[in-house]
């Protein structure tokens, strides 16, 4: 029997017995032993096998499956530049603590640095990612985050037998070790601030913690916290309002990376308690009054009902200003989408403007399972990630920007069979830059705005995928209510980037004025 075949079967069997059931492969020669072994496992109904042409997209697709299932998912490629394409998804997995298993096929060690074809030093090619250089008999371990398995395959690469190497599988149930949480006793006026990534905890765990705390909740993701304070990032943009609401303490779960106003508010508070397991491994320089690696046993000494009422009233005043604004904009489009999505569905939110607009302008609700690539907040691989996530849900949706869509256009070569609707916010370029300080610099449009000037409808149609275009909230509601099966795109045509920036500035000003008047701060 071929030693390459034996090695591939050993590793695949061990992964299956460790509970890995989804494998994503890209075609190649050096990874042939793995591909053949995986096809044999698929034929016996042991695993799910997904084939993706592009290695970068394949890695993000596997990442999406891992995000949706919280299970280890393996992505496999051949040697050389193919391996390097895994790096963006691995970085996202590292910072989001997702269980992505990157398997790179390699030539034998003796061929490294000899000028052999398609051979480079793949050991340690992904800094900060735990890596194993495997030959026959080598051992490896899977952790709670990403891992890299580099496998040296010598020729011949093809099997010479058909033995039942999958017989007698003993698949691990993967029972998680229960931690004994520490205690936290707080007193005074406090707030609970929840990052979009939930600190890598489950939504159920964080929701339970929030309810038990009784504190006002500022959530970067208001779509899974129906009792969150709506529009906090908008009204806290006003320094006077931040001062009026200054707290005695803040409990922060995860990373807060979306709005400067929230971070300015938290930084003004004397005592801060941060809960995030990644502080022990990745964010080791993060500081606070006290840090916790797991959700603590919380005791709030006394809840000040006047304090809680103030937050609710300010949120109510902000909501009136926002909901009464009937102008068509990116923000109104996102409010309409997030209000109308059906319960029991999944939503992926793209980086850049969409995720910030949802934090600021969406109405808090429940009934959704939300996802985003917040590990490093990149726009690359978002379509592939969405495709992977959609495998685990009966109905899925996504909201992404036009540049995010174009960045992963090749993902449309392998569309999923799932029921997935993707809203693409089309403002012809990098809209977020129009809201940042560089908006007025010389050459802005060329080096920041980057208008794409593409007919997105024609691009999508060229792949044989259904697409519609909407320009009103009524059109959005109609598109959602149709609830067609399969994959479909909805292009949301919104005003240009300059108009968007102006509308945003005006909205912030009006909310600030309304709240100041309501608080007698004007």
TrEMBL record:
Pfam families: TPP_enzyme_M_2, TPP_enzyme_N. InterPro entries: MenaQ_synth_MenD (IPR004433), MenD_middle (IPR032264), THDP-binding (IPR029061), Thiamin_PyroP_enz_TPP-bd_dom (IPR012001). This is Unannotated protein. Residues 177-349 form the Menaquinone biosynthesis protein MenD middle domain. One of its GO terms (biological process) is menaquinone biosynthetic process. The lineage of its organism: unclassified sequences, metagenomes, ecological metagenomes. CDD domains: TPP_PYR_MenD, TPP_SHCHC_synthase. Keywords: Magnesium, Manganese, Metal-binding, Thiamine pyrophosphate, Transferase. One of its GO terms (molecular function) is metal ion binding. Residues 7-124 form the Thiamine pyrophosphate enzyme N-terminal TPP-binding domain.
């Amino acid at each position: 029997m071929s030693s390459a075949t034996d090695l591939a079967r050993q590793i695949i069997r061990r992964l299956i017995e460790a509970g890995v059931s989804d494998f994503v492969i890209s075609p190649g020669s050096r990874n042939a032993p793995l591909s053949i072994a995986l096809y044999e496992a698929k034929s016996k109904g042991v695993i799910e096998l997904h084939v993706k042409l592009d290695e970068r997209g394949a890695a993000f697709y596997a990442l999406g499956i891992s995000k949706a299932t919280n299970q280890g998912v393996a992505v496999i490629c051949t040697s050389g530049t193919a391996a390097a394409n895994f790096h963006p998804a691995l970085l996202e997995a590292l910072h989001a603590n997702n269980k992505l298993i990157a398997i790179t096929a390699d030539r034998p060690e003796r061929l490294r640095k000899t000028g052999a074809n398609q051979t480079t030093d793949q050991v340690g090619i992904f800094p900060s990612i735990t890596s194993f250089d495997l030959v026959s008999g080598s051992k490896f371990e899977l952790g709670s985050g990403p891992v890299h398995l580099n496998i040296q395959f010598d020729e011949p690469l093809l099997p010479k037998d058909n033995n039942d190497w999958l017989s007698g599988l003993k698949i691990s149930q993967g029972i998680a070790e229960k931690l004994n949480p520490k205690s936290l006793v707080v007193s005074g006026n406090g707030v609970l601030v929840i990052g979009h990534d939930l600190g890598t905890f489950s939504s159920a765990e964080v929701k339970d913690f929030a309810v038990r705390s009784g504190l006002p909740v500022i959530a970067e993701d208001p779509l899974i916290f129906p009792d969150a304070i709506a529009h906090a990032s908008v009204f806290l943009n006003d320094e006077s309002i931040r001062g009026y609401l200054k707290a005695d303490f803040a409990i922060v779960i995860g990373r807060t990376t979306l709005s400067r106003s929230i971070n300015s508010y938290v930084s003004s508070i004397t005592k801060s308690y941060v809960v995030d397991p990644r502080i022990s491994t990745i964010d080791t320089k993060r500081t606070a009054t006290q840090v916790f690696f797991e959700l603590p046993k919380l005791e709030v000494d006394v809840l000040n009902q006047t304090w809680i009422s103030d937050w609710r009233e300010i949120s109510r005043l902000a909501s009136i200003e926002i909901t009464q604004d009937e102008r068509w904009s990116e923000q109104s489009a996102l409010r309409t989408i997030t209000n109308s999505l059906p319960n029991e569905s999944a939503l992926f939110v793209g980086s850049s403007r969409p995720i910030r607009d949802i934090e600021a302008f969406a109405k808090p609700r429940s009934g959704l399972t939300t996802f985003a690539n917040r590990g490093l907040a990149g726009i690359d691989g978002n379509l592939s990630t969405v495709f992977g996530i959609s495998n685990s849900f009966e109905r899925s949706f996504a909201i992404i920007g036009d540049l995010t869509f174009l960045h992963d256009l090749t993902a449309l070569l392998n569309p999923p069979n799932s029921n997935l609707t993707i809203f693409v916010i089309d403002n012809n370029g990098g809209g977020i830059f129009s809201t940042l300080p560089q908006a007025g610099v010389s050459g802005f449009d060329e080096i920041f705005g980057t208008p794409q000037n593409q007919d997105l409808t024609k691009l999508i149609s060229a792949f044989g995928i259904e697409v519609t275009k909407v320009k009103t909230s009524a059109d959005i509601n109609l598109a959602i209510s149709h609830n067609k099966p399969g994959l479909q795109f909805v292009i949301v045509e919104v005003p240009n980037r300059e108009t968007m920036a102006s509308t945003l500035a005006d909205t912030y000003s009006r909310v600030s004025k309304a709240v100041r008047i309501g608080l007698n701060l004007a």
